[in-house]
Amino acid sequence: AQKITQTQPGMFVQEKEAVTLDCTYDTSDQSYGLFWYKQPSSGEMIFLIYQGSYDEQNATEGRYSLNFQKARKSANLVISASQLGDSAMYFCAMREGRRGSSNTGKLIFGQGTTLQVKP
Amino acid sequence: NAGVTQTPKFQVLKTGQSMTLQCAQDMNHNSMYWYRQDPGMGLRLIYYSASEGTTDKGEVPNGYNVSRLNKREFSLRLESAAPSQTSVYFCASSHRWEVDYEQYFGPGTRLTVT
Q: A105 contacts in B (CB within 8 Å)?
């Protein structure tokens, strides 16, 4: 069965430092997508970054990058130069299956990691 | 664009009462989803609608029903609420034809069943 595991319930990081949030996944599909979402204390879910299983380069979006290691089935989120506004819960998620008309886009979420940025 | 909207934002129900959570999106997305979020468990898929006219069960469908009223609207109904259904409910939508397939989430409904 497909599964996402985030082993760090909580993390602390000093402002302006980089931090890595771990995510491992389990799937038998050859084609899949990996997502990271941010949930601040206000509760909304904010999309951060996406990595496709066939993408050869690691995804980057501003201060966010995804360290994708396919053989190890890991998709860690790296936040560079942490800011106080980065304090939030972060979820790793996986879309099953190939993009296309038959794909329903269902996501499986990990348990989340709470990140606190210290001034 | 309002994106994904949900009503109500908060609701308190007594055990056995029924209610419908409303969700609408104005992004012309084909697929819509209902999730619940419980502490320490991430988000779990309740039901989804891959396209207008179709609905399917997700991971935790028991105690819920859904209706895809049209392309814009996807409602979630609790016929007889139970305390175990106390949770935060998120509606989401995605456009299958977009490059990244990310899901856009509504603001959530915080439901308490006493």
A: 31, 33, 50, 94, 96, 101, 103
- On whether any CB of chain B is under 8 Å from the CB of A59, the answer is no
**A70 CB within 8 Å of a chain B CB:** no
List pLDDT tens digits, range A7-53. Answer: 999 999 999 999 999 999 998 888 888 999 999 999 999 999 999 88
Phi and psi at residue A79, to the nearest 5°: -110, 120
Contact yes or no for A35/A107 (Cβ under 8 A): yes
B49-60 residue pLDDT tens: 988 889 999 999
The torsion of the CA quartet B22, B18, A44, A93, rounded to 10 degrees, works out to: -100
Asked if A119 is an interface residue toward chain B (Cβ–Cβ < 8 A), one would say no
Beta carbons within 10 angstroms of residue A88's beta carbon: 19
Q: Which residues of A touch B31 (CB under 8 A)?
A: 104-105
* pLDDT digits 0-9 by tens, A54-108: 888 999 999 999 999 999 999 999 999 999 999 999 999 998 766 555 566 788 9
Tokens of A109: 């979420």
Chain mean pLDDT for chain A: 91
SS3 readout for chain B: CCCEEEECCEEEECCCCCEEEEEEECCCCCEEEEEEECCCCCEEEEEEECCCCCCEECCCCCCEEEEECCCCEEEEEECCCCHHHCEEEEEEEECCCCCCCCCEECCCEEEEEC
Low-confidence ranges of chain B (pLDDT < 70): 96-101
